[in-house]
Amino acid sequence: MLIESHELAGDAVALRLDGRLNMVAAPQLKAAIDETVDAGRARVVVDLTLVTFMDSSGLGALIGGLKRARQASGDLRIARVSDQVSTVLKLTNLDRVLRPYDSVEAAVDAW
């Protein structure tokens, strides 16, 4: 899994993921979110455009990141989800907690 970090307006950061978000990559995502929040940027948008597959471990990393960001008075949002990721979110009803945005910009504008 490749994770690229991009600074956005204000104190927000976009993490763009590329690959499979599974039990192998989930700790890497968790570490990237922790690093971002520890650096004082608690508003995180995870760009899932290039994520081809997500399992429960990946979902757990996103929920853990959401909790971590909120503990730091921020938030975590997801953007540009694939059909597979959308299906996983809907099946677990977590699309209500991690509402997908059409773009990174839309996620930032909603703050």
Biggest sheet layout: 5 strands, mixed
Helix-residue proportion: 25-40%
- Strand and helix order: EEHEHEHEH
CATH architecture classification name: 2-Layer Sandwich
Per the principal axes of the C-alpha atoms, what is the gross shape?
Answer: globular
- Report the top-level CATH class: Alpha Beta
Q: In percent, how much strand structure appears in the residues?
A: 25-35%
The CA-CA distance between the termini, in Å, is 28 Å
Major sheet strand order: 1-2-3-4-5
Radius of gyration: 12 Å
Helices and strands: which structural class? alpha/beta
Query: How many E strands?
Result: 5
- Our count of domains comes out at 1
Uncertain ranges:
none
Mean pLDDT: 94
Helical segment tally? Answer: 4
List keywords for this structure.
5 strands, 111 residues, 32% strand, globular, alpha/beta, Transcription Regulator spoIIAA, single chain, five-stranded mixed β-sheet
Explain what the structure shows:
The protein is α/β, with parallel strands linked by helices. The chain has one domain (2-103): Transcription Regulator spoIIAA (2-Layer Sandwich), CATH 3.30.750.24. It is built from four helices and five strands; from the N terminus they run ββαβαβαβα. A five-stranded mixed β-sheet has the order 1-2-3-4-5. Helix 1 (26-38) packs parallel to helix 2. The longest helix is centred in the middle third of the chain and has 16 residues, at 56-71. The mean pLDDT is 94.
